[in-house]
Design brief:
The chain has about 140 residues and is mainly alpha-helical. It is built from four helices and no strands. Keywords: Membrane, Transmembrane, Transmembrane helix.
């Protein structure tokens, strides 16, 4: 069994997560553990699904039926990350504004990704897949 198919998405998640933590730490000028998760630069979700599609393309070729399934999944995840979850973040911001004096715990507002964050995630995923592919060939 070729482990590169399993290792690639995990590796992309790890690389992108480290990049996101580093960027957030520099921007906030503190260790930004509380900002790990949804939203931010680069998009972990985009990196994971892009790396899966890329490793399939590198290993099996662009005519692989598995690539079609991976690309379809990638489009769904990327659209969700850049549109639906951004709307959820906007709703959370409005709810937090309404509840600001109620003593209720604030909802997380940082949920979705901008286009540049998604693009950075895609690039990170493809580069991660390329690196894993080179290590396993």
């Amino acid at each position: 069994m070729d482990l590169s198919y399993i290792i690639t998405p995990f590796f992309a998640w790890l690389v992108t997560g480290i990049c996101k933590f580093t960027i957030n730490t520099i921007k906030q000028r503190r260790l930004a553990f509380d900002l790990v998760g949804y939203g931010g630069m680069p998009s972990n979700h985009s990196a994971i699904v892009s790396s899966a599609a890329a490793i399939i393309a590198f290993k099996d070729g662009v005519e692989s039926p598995a690539l079609v399934a991976a690309l379809a999944l990638a489009f769904i995840v990327i659209l969700d990350a850049s549109s639906l979850r951004q709307q959820i973040g906007k709703h959370a911001k409005a709810i937090n504004h309404l509840n600001r004096n109620s003593g209720k715990k604030a909802l997380r507002e940082r949920m979705g990704h901008t286009r540049i964050e998604v693009l950075a995630g895609i690039v990170s995923g493809i580069l991660s897949a390329g690196l894993v592919h080179r290590m396993f060939t």
